[in-house]
Specification:
alpha/beta, about 230 residues, 7 strands, globular
C-alpha cells in the first residue's frame, strides 16, 4: 500500500525522495537508514585552523548527506529537519559523554549564516536544527539545553561556497562577534557541516574572546579529504 501511495504521489505531484530521488512522499526508508547509520565521532581537519574546537560529527558528508542538507536549507524541505536534527542530537550527546561534567550547565550556540543568506533562503537552518536537537536531547536524557544566539557574523559576510581552503581561512578570520554566555553556562557551537574547519575556529575564537570559551562543537556531517594535504 505504501508503494502504491508513493507512486501515486509521484504521478500526481511529482514527489520524490530528496535523498535518492525515487518516487515517494518524503525521505524513503532506505535513505533514512543510510542517514541514521553515520558514525558519530570526533573530527580532525588537516590542515587544522588555529582555534579549531574539539568537534563531533554524526557522519561523513558523502552519500545522501549532501542532497539532504542542501534540500533542507536551500529548498526549504522542512520535513528533513527532524531526521537531520536527530543526527545533530547524537553528536551533542557524544560530546557531552566525552567532555561534559556532571552539574554543569550547557547551551547550544548555532553558527548562523549571514543575514543576507538567511533572507535569501527564508530560513535560519542552523538555529532550527539546534532547537530540534535540544528537544531530542531533553527527551532522551532529560538535559535542558537552551539555544542561545551568542555568535553573529557581520552584515556583509562573504559566502564560503566556492572558496578553497586558503580563501575560507582568510574569509573567516576575525569574522564573528560574540557576547558572553549567561553566567554558569558553557557554550557548545552548532553547525550543519564542517569542511576546512575555518568557520568553527573563527566562532570558537570569538566566544573565547568574549570570556565564554566553548566546550566544543557539534555538526551533522564532516567532509572527507580525498587528496593529501599540502
Amino acid at each position: 500500500m505504501s508503494d502504491l501511495l508513493d507512486h501515486a504521489a509521484d504521478l500526481l505531484l511529482g514527489s520524490r525522495c530528496p535523498g535518492c530521488h525515487q518516487p515517494g512522499r518524503s525521505l524513503c526508508a532506505a535513505c533514512r537508514q543510510r542517514l541514521a547509520g553515520g558514525r558519530v565521532r570526533f573530527v580532525e581537519r588537516d590542515p587544522s585552523p588555529v582555534g579549531f574546537p574539539l568537534t563531533v560529527c554524526a557522519g561523513d558528508y558523502t552519500g545522501v548527506m549532501p542532497a539532504l542538507l542542501s534540500g533542507f536549507k536551500d529548498e526549504r524541505l522542512l520535513d528533513l529537519a527532524t531526521p537531520l536534527a536527530a543526527r545533530l542530537g547524537a553528536s551533542v550527546m557524544h560530546l557531552l559523554a566525552a567532555l561534559g561534567r556532571v552539574g554543569s550547565a550547557y547551551a547550544l550556540v548555532p553558527v548562523t549564516s549571514s543575514p543576507a543568506a538567511i533572507r535569501e533562503r527564508g530560513l535560519d537552518h542552523t538555529h532550527l536544527l539546534a532547537t530540534r536537537a535540544a528537544r531530542l536531547v531533553r527527551r532522551e536524557v532529560g538535559l535542558a539545553l537552551p539555544v542561545r544566539r551568542l555568535v553573529q557574523p557581520p552584515r556583509r559576510a562573504v559566502d564560503q561556497v566556492g572558496l578553497d581552503a586558503v580563501a575560507r581561512l582568510r574569509n573567516r578570520r576575525n569574522h564573528y562577534a560574540a557576547v558572553p554566555a549567561p553566567r554558569g553556562e558553557i557554550p557548545i557551537l552548532v553547525d550543519d557541516v564542517t569542511t576546512t574547519g575555518s568557520t568553527l575556529a573563527a566562532a570558537a575564537r570569538a566566544l573565547a574572546d568574549s570570556g565564554s570559551p566553548a566546550l566544543g562543537a557539534v555538526v551533522v556531517a564532516a567532509t572527507v579529504r580525498r587528496s593529501p594535504s599540502r
